[in-house]
Amino acid sequence: MDGWSASAENPDVLQIAATPEPPYYAVIAPAVLSGDVTGYPELAVRLMETAHEIDGFLGIESCFQGRFTLAVSYWRSLEAIDAWREHARHQLAKNLGKTRWFEAYFTRIARVERDY
Amino acid sequence: MDGWSASAENPDVLQIAATPEPPYYAVIAPAVLSGDVTGYPELAVRLMETAHEIDGFLGIESCFQGRFTLAVSYWRSLEAIDAWREHARHQLAKNLGKTRWFEAYFTRIARVERDY
Predict the structure, then answer these.
(1) Would you say the pTM of this structure is higher than 0.90?
(2) Has the ipTM of the complex gone over 0.90?
(3) Which of A32, A61, A75, A116 to mutate to test binding with chain B, by most B CBs within 10 Å of its CB?
(4) b/e for A43-76, b at 16 or more Cβ within 10 A?
(5) Averaged pLDDT of chain B
(6) Rounded to an integer, what distance in angstroms lies between the CA atom of residue B78 and that of residue A115?
(7) In whole angstroms, how far apart are CA B107 and each of A22, A50, A55, B72, B114?
(8) Which listed residue, of A71, B49, B73, B97, carries a Cα 20 to 30 Å from B115's Cα?
């Protein structure tokens, strides 16, 4: 999983996101990777790059440990999240898809009300 | 940081939390550890154990990668979060405290509105 190493070195990921004053939205995405993640690290990097181009993207925090990954991305609105999801769905469909890469995954949409 | 290894092997942490139907609350806590985390892993384990005893605790997802940690805990209500924060504050005050262990930390309180 060399692709992960490259991603792990990305200082944009392994740091606290500089978000604006609440309210804003968070997409909390824990996942357990399967044994075969061929192609996934490359897609993850591309998806991340694209997120930055979506209007309303505020930042992302993520890390992975063993086969567990936890990513929290921040967005100005639910509309921005929808735009992102639509894009990610297309990209995943063009590739091997979640069912192969992930043993389990879950998504939570939350409204950040306070931060400190 | 041997304490981290023990914690890393904890299957209770490196998995997707089994939360109930929304709405519920999430505490999103990214942090960058300092070079000296003496005593912190032990406290983190104790704090986690105590969280399970607080009424309204629903689960936690967390991982760490290098010096970056990301933890998302889930709660039934803001009151449960307040109870947890009060407890954690006391524990940290009795120990070395956040200023020594963390180079940076941030906390976001969010209301989970949807999950899928």
Answers:
(1) no
(2) no
(3) A61
(4) bbbeebeebeebebbbbbbbbbbebbbbbbbbbb
(5) 84
(6) 13
(7) 12, 26, 24, 10, 21
(8) B49
